[in-house]
Each structure stands twice: as structure tokens, then as C-alpha cells.
């Protein structure tokens, strides 16, 4: 089997989670990568990743502080898992070296940053994959198959509502800083990707944007019981972050979304909600509706048809889509090529989905298939999130095109200036 020499660039929380994904793929006998380097200017982080890699693969990758140090190591592909501020400079540098790149979401910190990577990628023939994990969830694959099969008829309306978070820090300080990401971008790009995955291209949005919680609290920094940390990796860094800090990024958006199909979406992403948490992702069509579970929960979809008289939330969902099959890696990792539910601890689900991302990246590099979430799609997700923020500033509906082509950029201007873009 052809092997691809790989470096993980950015060895913080997601860098470690990617390592666990690569190890999961390796254990399943499906990995086409050799991890040759761990790159991070914070030596502790790079060494931590390299030490764990040595346990997983029996070989310790080289530890380097700077991407330029990867050149003598013969790297062919990089996995960029740094904070978003660095994605475009590292992405462009990787492409200039002739390396394939998988880049964590948001693929760039602003639309202009994404466009810089797109310019560098043009005509180079290299693979650029966006590590967007939510759509790769087997349950979201099944939902897409149900939509494609017309089980609820023509989709007319989507509800995507999430409320929660109160005044708690979301994982890290940088996620609350406009010049480093902001929660509405950090989480919003996932949901933007899911909306387009299910409903097709978004054409415009009209949004109200708020900053409800100007000071956020970090329990681990205050010596209190740390918050639940995705895949258990973040607590050690959270202990070093301040207990309370002022934020610069907005934390709630309430929007109407228009799709090219003529369908409409109602979108609420409120990270400052106190009291009852809310999750609802619903799609209403001309024949029925789908009630979709949390991404990565493994919970089943509920299908309603015939004015609610027919309710299906079990294995009979699969009978409706006889041609539905998960790809080889997903089926191997999740234990079946036709799934309507799964039940793993979160950390295991997380690494399986990242393993699927790596398998997709390798397959695209080896010319087996196109990449699943490409640079254009990753850029669209960034543009959808910023279209909401731009609409909030402009006080009017904003089209995705005017955000993608940087005609509308009042919100992003100071971020771009800070990046030197
Ligand atoms: N898909 C998901 O579910 C998911 C979940 C969490 C994070 N993420 C994404 O992963 C990325 C990283 O997030 P995180 O939570 O790991 O952040 P983090 O702060 O835990 O880690 C970032 C790491 O990048 C390193 N870094 C910074 N500049 C670098 C450079 N020039 N070269 C190499 N390393 C550099 C930092 O030192 C740090 O170790 C973000 O884009 C985030 O949105 C995705």
C-alpha cells in the first residue's frame, strides 16, 4: 500500500484529537499515512503529541517548531489543526511546498483568508480538504439519503435552533475573540455546512446579532470543577486560562436563511442561553418532516408523514432507502454499512469521524475519488457565518455572493487588517 508521509501542524486540543483519529484508522488497518512530524511552536504540545504517537504507531514523529522545518523530513501532506488565525498562512505555505493539506474548520479566519488559500490552490493539482466532521456522521448520511430519496417530498423549510452556554467559556478564550474566531464562526461553520449539505446552496441571510455575555467564566481557571471537555483533552490548557475574561466576539445570532431551491431556514445560534437548553434541527417537506438528532450523538432520526400519523424512528428508516450504504471506512469504523443509530462514548465517536476524514484525505491524494468537503465548500461555510455577522452590521439581508466576493466586508475589515490582509 502506498504510504503518505504526514505532519500534524498544531498540537493543541484538536491536534491531539486528530492523532486519536489517525490511530483509530491505523487500528482498523485502513491508514495510508505515516506520521513523520508534530509541528507546534509550543514545545510541550508538540512533544505531548509525539509521545502519544510513539505509543500508537511504535515510532516517534520528529518534533519541529516551524512548518519550514518539515521540508527535510520529506512530508507530502500536512494536517493543519492550529487556531484559525494561522490557517491561511500555513495553508498557502504548504501548497507552495507542493504538499496536500487538510485544514480544520473554519478553513480561514475570514472570507479573504479563505480566498487567499483558494488562489494558492488554483491550478496546483493538490488536494485541500476541510476537516468538517459533522456531515460525516453516519446519521447525517442517512438523513441526506432520506432527503435524496424524496421521503419527505420537496424540502420547504428548515429549522436549526441551538440555545445554551450561559456565561461559560466555550472550550478556550480564543473562541470568544473576534480577531481569533468568535463562537458564531467557530460553531457556525459546522451548522452552515450542515444546512447546505441537507438543503443545497444558501443564497442570502438576514440576521440579528447580539453580544449578550461580555464576560465569560472558565471554571477550570477558577479552580472549580472543570466543564465537560470534548474528548477529554482540554482541561490541562483551561487550567492555565483566566477564570473570567472580557470577550470581543458576539455570541448570538437570530436569522432567516434563503436557499437557492426556494426553501427557507430559521436559524438560531445562541451561545448565551440561560435556563432550558434548546436543540432542534427539523426539515419540513411537501410529504413529511425529519427531526434530526444532535451531531455525533448516534441518536436516531424521527420521520413524520401522513399528517403525523406515520412516525418512524427505528430500523424501518433503512427500508425506505434500500440503496443507502456508508463508505468502506465509515462502515468499518462504525460497525455496519447501513446504520440508523450507534452508541459509543463521545471520544470514540469523535475519533472515528476524524479517522473517516483522514481516509477521505488519503483517498483523494491517491486519486481514488474527489475530496468530500473541498475548499470551495469550506469557504462557503465561512461566508455563511460572516453573512450573518455582516447582515447584523448592514441592517439588511446580505447575499452570499457579495460576501464571497468580498464586496460586503464591514464586519471582517478590522480582522483582515489585523491579519495584514
Ligand atoms: N471539527 C471539530 O469538531 C473541531 C473541534 C475543536 C476544534 N476544531 C478546530 O481545530 C482548530 C484548533 O482548535 P483547538 O481547539 O485545537 O485549539 P488549541 O488552542 O487547543 O490548539 C491550537 C494549537 O495550535 C498551535 N499553533 C499556533 N500557531 C501555530 C503555528 N504557526 N504552527 C503550528 N502550531 C501552531 C498552538 O500552539 C496550539 O497548540 C481550530 O480551527 C478549531 O476551530 C474543530
From TrEMBL:
Q: Where would I find the Gfo/Idh/MocA-like oxidoreductase N-terminal domain in this sequence?
A: 6-131
Q: What InterPro entries would the database entry show?
A: Gfo/Idh/MocA-like_OxRdtase_C (IPR004104), Gfo/Idh/MocA-like_OxRdtase_N (IPR000683), Gfo/Idh/MocA_oxidrdct_glycsds (IPR050463), NAD(P)-bd_dom_sf (IPR036291)
Q: Which GO terms describe its molecular function?
A: nucleotide binding; oxidoreductase activity
Q: Which UniProt keywords apply?
A: Oxidoreductase
Q: Keyword Oxidoreductase on this protein?
A: yes
The record's listing under Gene3D superfamilies reads: Dihydrodipicolinate Reductase, domain 2, NAD(P)-binding Rossmann-like Domain
Please report a single Pfam family linked to this protein. GFO_IDH_MocA
Gfo/Idh/MocA-like oxidoreductase C-terminal domain sequence ranges: 145-400
Q: Which family does it belong to?
A: Belongs to the Gfo/Idh/MocA family.
The molecule here is called: Gfo/Idh/MocA family oxidoreductase
